[in-house]
Amino acid sequence: MGFFDRFFHPNTTNEPFVDSPMRDNWYQASSYWPSSFALITTVDEEGNTNIGPYQLTFPFEVIGGRSFIVCSRQGSNTETNIHQVKKCALNFVEFDKSWIKKIVRLGYPGQTTLEKMEDNPFTLIDSPTEGRAQDPLFPKILKEAFQVYECTFDSEQSIRDDGKTPEYMVLRIDNILLKKTWQENIENGTTRMPRMPIAYGFRDGHKFWFAEHKKPFWVPTPTDKGPKEEAVLYEANRLEPDSVQFTRAACKQLTGVPKPFIKTVLKGIIKQAKADGVALVDEDYVKKINDERNS
Ligand SMILES: Cc1cc2nc3c(=O)[nH]c(=O)nc-3n(C[C@H](O)[C@H](O)[C@H](O)COP(=O)(O)O)c2cc1C
Questions:
Q1: CA 248 – CA 238 distance, rounded (Å)
Q2: Which burial class, exposed, middle or buried, applies to 103 when counting CB atoms under 10 A from its CB (0-12, 13-18, 19+)?
Q3: Domain 21-211 sits in which CATH superfamily?
Q4: Model confidence over 93-121: pLDDT tens digits?
Q5: Model pLDDT for residues 277-288, shown as the tens digit of each residue
Q6: E strands within the chain?
Q7: Which residues' Cβ are closer than 6 Å to ligand 1?
Q8: What angle do CA 176, 181, 187 make, to 5 degrees?
């Protein structure tokens, strides 16, 4: 916070806590909840792609299964289309104030797809995923997005359907599309973050709050806490998760490798494991490779 903000921003540290009345949509009507939001594209009955803005989009299954949960009011175009067609794409865009105003317009309830798309600031393009451009069930995606999750509705994971609550939809992530720069950023050690807008929700019947954040920064994870092999294990099992995995004991063997070299060493072991047809690298296998290299 700069000097100006600090000066005018209320300092509440010494205030007592008071109850906030519980309302529907409590996250925005009784409290403060900052989050990203997705522009969900789906296909309507006539084959038109619809864009709906959704803040309540959260990662759900994160290890093994990969899914997202979306909470939508009943009867939105997005909810209707997802239940009918089962396919959707969650498009994430960077901060641009002129887009934000148009996004709020896309979030005005009661518009048909054709009505709302007249004012759409985004370019709809075919999915680059094989087979999707030709198939009218798959929605188009936004050219301006930096990231897109292409999803399929998971009807087996229904959370609650009493006809009164919003629709809680679990969406299985078929694939994650990133613009090249952002994909390489992750692969090469993440040196920056996209400038994602932050949504603070709908207030007082007539306004939507948003924020642009400052340049993100990172802090190192503590090296004096927990088992030493944790960082090695994390790195090892995300390199080629579908072909070679490492046991914790194997990673313990590698904690002496200096940090700048660990990725290269792990890649070397994976290459060797693949050549040997080994899918699980354990302590004995690391020892064996070490012995071979040292002999
Ligand atoms: C930034 C933003 C976030 C929103 N988040 C949600 C949400 O999480 N759930 C919801 O039901 N509506 C949300 N809305 C309202 C929907 O966008 C609105 O219901 C809209 O009609 C949905 O479009 P659709 O009918 O084309 O799906 C949001 C609106 C905006 C502008």
A1: 14
A2: buried
A3: Electron Transport, Fmn-binding Protein; Chain A (2.30.110.10)
A4: 999 999 999 999 999 999 999 999 998 99
A5: 999 999 999 999
A6: 38-43, 49-54, 57-59, 67-72, 87-92, 124-125, 141-142, 147-153, 167-178, 198-203, 207-211, 245-246, 280-281
A7: 37, 50, 52-56, 71-73, 76-78, 103-104, 107, 109, 199, 208
A8: 70
Which residue out of 28, 33, 40, 55 has the highest number of ligand 1 atoms within 8 Å of its CB and is therefore the one to mutate? Answer: 55
Considering only CA atoms, which of 91, 82, 177 is closest in space to residue 137? 82
According to the model, what pLDDT value does residue 90 have? Answer: 98
**How far is it, in rounded angstroms, from Cα 74 to Cα 31?**
23
Name the residue type at position 113: T
Q: What is the largest CA-CA distance in the chain?
A: 74
Residues of each domain in the chain carrying CATH 2.30.110.10: 21-211
Distance (Å) from CA 107 to ligand 1 centroid:
5
Q: Which CATH architecture has domain 230-294?
A: Orthogonal Bundle (1.10)
